[in-house]
Specification:
The chain is an alpha+beta fold. The protein is built from nine helices and 33 strands. Strands 1-2-3-4-5-7-6 form a seven-stranded mixed β-sheet, sandwiched between helices. 42% of the residues are buried.
Length: 595
């Protein structure tokens, strides 16, 4: 039925037959909203019929309807889209709409239209990327944002998986602020080519936080049936984590189960449909409930079930765990239970991940993008897929993450509502073996390269609280933009970045280094990882761990110096001098990505 159609020009001879067709298919709906009289119907159709852009719809050469496709300077408007009633449900309307949207995409303009309130056409437009901007008793007003060029998706290098994960829309309320911002991110996700195999949503889909179950259900239904109507969830499955906006008490947990009845019920007792796991070939996805009411609420997570699931699926080549709350603080927004998982759970939780070969823990909650590494396990925080706030403002941005997983590991790209890619990572890193590292002045440290330093020697015999320099940038007449050393009574590894003269420095802290003992410290500087991009390990075969920080930025602001001070600060041999012996430094650089 959808073949053999085309557009044709309208003539005055088409007016009366098309008016009859319009009246037949629209009269019932117009009467429902109190807007039908024969005179008004003729007047309104006459106005649209005479406007440039009216097209005849022909099927096998026979007139079966019409549509208005009006190009203006800043928009395209669609109106007067009528088909003979016998063709409703045939798929022809969808085919014609897709053709018009393809034509509109080539112009780079948004498409706008109105639909009578309560019309079944609402679902058609929502499925094709339109967003309901507002609605009154008569009409709903819809917009499809201008389509940009496709966003090339990262693909597996051989057998693997490619998917999208994002979170924190806090939407579900028609016409509210977050609905529009979330629509922008969804429009960017739809531009991925090819489309993702599956989607993970890391919580806070809806505004929630209501005591009324029916209100909560309405928010979920609006989010699923309107805001996410573009997604064919049979072709592209979507899995969810619980979250503080959506599952904050017993009632909301039950609503979550009802709304997401398709989610597996293989979680621990009492958490069926809240915690669960999914196996896709060699990939295991485990979703944990980080605020179960039966365990204490926000910031609490059950770990024994997680351990058992990971051990049950020890054969899975790739293991990813997803939850809402971070385990390690993000951007300095720290606070057990409310900001991150509570301390009685956090260490055990991470032990389970590290000991069972988990590649990454995906989370949200803090309205930022952040990646850290702890004992070789990534913590990737992605929140702000629609929530129009930032943590902090001015640095973070609306975004989603697309990832590819294969035998070489995980690669991701973080893109905003305009489709611009901000950050990338390939993990694990292909760090050259230490035998290939060179002397500091021969390593070629500079922009657009990852740098790693190796510090060996013997610490001072007596503990001291004074700072001791391992390596510092040498910048005459300004404070050193980079300082690496030991500091405080426990002589913790410390990195200080001071890229903006006259502004407060930011600090990164690592482990304490034992007194009167040999040491072998490797420090990796990854400008593409934000604040988590300063990593250390204390042996060549040890996993990498990010230093702790309260910063929202990292080495991306660092301008590498041309000169170095070794074993003391740039103020001379007495400036925070290293008090041990046999200090030696080597370094290496390598490409940002393994692609």
């Amino acid at each position: 039925m959808t073949e053999g159609w085309r557009f044709g020009p309208v003539t005055e001879a088409d007016f009366e037959p098309l008016l009859v067709l319009r009246t037949e298919v629209m009269r019932e709906h117009l009467e429902r909203v109190g807007r039908y009289t024969p005179e008004r119907s003729r007047q309104m159709f006459r106005m649209h019929f005479d406007e440039p852009g009216t097209r005849l719809i022909l099927l096998d050469g026979v007139r079966v309807g019409c549509v208005g496709f009006r190009r203006h300077e800043h928009e395209i408007r669609i109106d007067s889209f009528y088909l003979e009633r016998r063709l409703h449900g045939s798929g022809l309307g969808t085919t014609i709409l897709k053709a018009m949207l393809t034509e509109a995409d080539a112009t780079g303009l948004p498409v706008r239209l109105e639909v009578l309130t309560g019309s079944k056409a609402d679902r058609l437009y929502l499925r094709h990327g339109f967003v309901k901007l507002r609605e009154d008793d008569i009409e709903g007003f819809y917009e499809r944002p201008a389509a940009g060029p496709s966003i090339p998706a990262l693909l597996p290098r051989g057998p693997g998986h490619q998917f999208v994960f994002y979170g924190d829309a806090c939407s579900g309320v028609p016409g509210a602020l977050h609905e529009g911002t979330f629509a922008g991110i969804n429009a960017a996700v739809r531009r991925l080519a090819p489309s993702p195999e599956f989607i993970l949503f890391l919580g806070d889909e809806i505004a929630g936080y209501t005591a009324d179950a029916d209100t909560l259900r309405r928010q979920w239904r609006h989010w699923l049936d309107h805001e996410m109507a573009w997604l064919d969830r049979h072709t592209t499955p979507m899995w969810h984590t619980t979250s503080n906006h959506a599952t904050y008490d017993v009632m909301s947990e039950q609503v979550f189960r009802e709304v997401h009845a398709h989610l597996p019920r293989n979680g621990p007792p009492g958490q069926e449909g809240l915690s669960y796991w999914v196996r896709r070939g060699d990939l295991l996805l485990v979703f944990v409930h980080t605020l179960w009411t039966g365990l204490g609420g926000e910031g609490h997570v059950e770990t024994e079930w997680l351990r058992a699931v990971l051990q049950q699926h020890a054969d899975a080549r790739h293991k990813i765990v997803a939850g809402h709350h971070p385990v390690h603080p993000v951007n300095g927004f720290s606070g057990p239970y409310q900001r991150d998982v509570g301390p009685e759970h956090a260490n055990v939780f991470w032990d389970v991940l590290a000991e069972n070969g988990v590649l990454a823990y995906l989370c949200g909650h803090i309205l930022a993008f952040d990646v850290q590494v702890h004992r070789g396990v990534l913590q990737i925080c992605t929140a702000g897929a629609g929530t129009a706030h930032r943590m902090p403002e001015g640095i973070e941005y609306l975004h989603a993450v697309q990832a590819a997983l294969d035998d070489g590991g995980l690669r991701y790209q973080v893109f905003d509502a305009d489709g611009q890619v901000h950050e990338k990572l390939s993990w694990p890193l292909a760090v050259p073996p230490v035998e290939q590292w060179r002397a500091l002045d021969e390593a070629g440290i500079g922009k657009d390269r990852l740098a790693a330093f190796r510090f060996t020697g013997h610490t001072a015999p007596a503990p001291t609280g004074a700072a001791q320099t391992l390596l510092a940038a040498f910048e005459p007449n300004v404070r050193a933009p980079l300082w690496i050393g030991l500091s405080g009574p426990s002589q913790r590894l410390m990195v200080i970045l001071e890229p903006e003269p006259g502004r407060s420095p930011h600090y990164w802290l690592g482990p304490p280094i034992a007194a009167d003992a040999p040491f072998d410290i490797q420090l990796l500087v990854h400008p593409g990882m934000g604040p988590g991009g300063l990593l250390y390990r204390l042996a060549a075969d040890a996993p990498w761990t990010s230093l702790s920080a309260a910063s929202a930025w990292g080495a991306e602001r660092l301008q590498w110096p041309g000169r170095w001070s070794v074993g003391h600060g740039q103020g001379g041999s007495d400036d925070r001098a290293f008090r041990g012996r046999d200090l030696a430094i080597s370094a290496t650089t390598f490409a940002m990505s393994s692609d």
